[in-house]
Write a structure and sequence with these properties.
The complex is a heterodimer of chains A (about 100) and B (about 170). Helix content of chain A is about 75%, strand content about 0%. Chain A has about 100 residues and is mostly helical. The radius of gyration of chain B is 22 Å and the shape is extended. Chain B starts with a helix and ends in an 8-residue tail after the last helix. The chains are: A mainly alpha (about 100), B mainly alpha (about 170).
Chain lengths: ~100, ~170
């Protein structure tokens, strides 16, 4: 049995919904950030798989993956800076505690 | 089963097992380590698909950068070793149901969909080809997104410093 596109897409879909589950259940900002990283990685796997199996005459999937990885790094850095700043104010990184702007 | 298939299933088990443990573990530090395993498994999957450059970038940026950043922020904001409190049971059940049903729906669509690969000659995803096309200024080059992303990284770096910097109140 050959490993085809469907196998890779199954992995990336499962990874995506594991990330969704983590994002919905976790109440801790750092673990929510981890769940977002899982989502971004599943999207990267999709780009690489489509580039490999369907459009191997182009490199566009590779470029999208490189840019997504870069932006994910920037996003993680900004998110962690915000989390550390929130921790100074509230002495907690639970999302339920940061409710100053809640209406 | 060939060796290639067995390697693929081992990689899949590492990726999905690591991800599941990362989102369910009660100890936040263990959660970060499971995420590390999952990301290394994804890098292995890129190696398996023979995209070595992307695998190297994945290891350098995610494993070397983001996970280390997450672990440092855990040390800065937690007394590590303590358990996180479990999610409310109703929320956990409904989140799991939503994830499982969405997964089933997506899998049905993927199974039904027929994919048609292009018949053009393949381009080797080597560092040489990637670099040439990324930095080319011709019609299919990616120099503009490259520059925009470099500005974005600079902005994010300055933003992080401004957000996380300690403000000293002047003594009155």
């Amino acid at each position: 049995m050959n490993i085809g596109l469907t196998h890779i897409l199954t992995i990336s879909t499962a990874l995506f919904f594991i990330g969704i589950y983590g994002f919905l259940t976790r109440r801790n900002m750092i673990t929510m950030l981890m769940a977002v990283e899982l989502l971004l990685n599943s999207v990267n796997i999709n780009f690489i798989a489509f580039n490999k199996f369907l459009y191997h005459d182009k490199l566009d999937g590779v470029f999208f993956t490189v840019f997504i990885i870069t932006i994910a790094a920037a996003e993680a850095a900004v998110a962690i800076a915000i989390i550390i700043n929130l921790y100074r104010h509230y002495k907690s990184i639970d999302v339920e505690d940061a409710d100053t702007m809640k209406f | 089963m060939s060796a290639s298939t067995i390697i693929f299933y081992i990689l899949a088990a590492v990726i999905l097992g690591g991800a599941l443990l990362a989102v369910t573990s009660r100890k936040i530090f263990r959660s970060a380590i499971y995420l590390l395993f999952s990301l290394i498994g994804i890098a292995g999957l890129y190696f398996y698909l023979s995209y070595e450059f992307i695998a190297a970038v994945q290891i350098v940026v995610y494993v070397g950068g983001i996970v280390v950043l997450i672990i440092f922020s855990i040390f800065l904001t937690h007394e590590s070793g303590g358990d996180m409190k479990a999610p409310a049971i109703g929320r956990a059940i409904f989140s799991a149901l939503a994830a499982v049903f969405s997964f089933a729906l997506t899998m049905i669509i993927i199974r039904k969909q027929e994919f048609f690969p292009t018949t053009n000659a393949a381009v080797e995803p080597s560092v040489h080809n990637i670099g040439t096309q990324m930095l080319s200024t011709t019609a299919h080059g990616f120099i503009l997104p490259f520059e925009v992303v470099s500005i974005l990284l600079l902005t994010a770096m300055i933003g992080c410093i401004v957000i996380a910097i300690k403000t000293f109140k002047p003594k009155v």
